[in-house]
Amino acid sequence: MADWVGRCGVALEPLVSRLHELLLSEPILHADETPVSIMKNHVKVGSKSLKKGYVWAYLTPQHSALKAVVYDFAESRRNEHPKAFLDKWRGKLVCDDYSGYKFLFHQGVTEIGCLAHARRKFHELHITGQSIVSIEALTLFRQLYAVEREIDERFEKNTPPTPRDPQIVRQIRQEKAKPIADKLHQWLQEKRQLTTKNASISKAIDYCLKRWQALTQYLDDGRLPIDNNWAENQMRPWALGRKNWLFAGSLRSGQRAANIMSIIQSARLNGLDVSAYLTDVLRRLPTQESLDELLPHRWVPPQ
């Protein structure tokens, strides 16, 4: 069984490489990473048998015309991995504040922050009772997300949903979300002046103030999301996998698994019957002249 799965990972690699090329032609991408254990090649008696690897996800925004995700399995969390994957790409990258992405923002990539991460820091303070005033920030975050729900409802109330118009999205955000964001920014500045460096809420405030430009980029571009939750959602299959198969047998096994997961998850994003899709694609791949016809967003079920 493991051999069959490994062969599938090898067979699907050309499709994943083509998806990778298409991702690099997109103006906006999400990125996220999560740890996955790898079995060590040579285990000494008494030593631990597993080491930490990472799977990186790169994908298009939820409302993008191209719906695709490519997973890159690597042996570490070092910045050399996003550097190699993104290469000369110079678009807008939606990501968290992990330092591994920072070098990209000095090479022409625009940082798009995650408002969910910023909100989460105040939420943790609130539920643990470490800060009474954190509820004030949470109220403003809630209002910002209410604007996003209004935008979603505007375009999704019809059947089928109306394609999102970035200009309309930007207009709504400028009229309704920007005043709230300005109020939040003022609140952050005022509260920071009243708190000490070691106060529990200071770290949450500093996180927002230092990244304010990145966190509010979405207000000026209707194509951008408010947070990176879309990328985190695409990591769920790997989170489930860690509980089921526990680890990758080797770096090569992890890379083959990443190929398979890239195709399966991209097929799901395009609403395909994954079983029917894979059955047809694996049958046609050896003799197929045009790979693009087999990509999830281009595939047509056989008649």
TrEMBL record:
Highest rank taxon of the organism: Bacteria
InterPro entries xrefs: IS66_C (IPR039552), Transposase-related (IPR052344), Transposase_IS66_central (IPR004291)
Domain Transposase IS66 central: 1-255
Domain Transposase IS66 C-terminal: 262-297
PANTHER family with a match to the protein in the record: BLL1576 PROTEIN
Name the UniProt record assigns to this protein: Transposase IS66 family protein
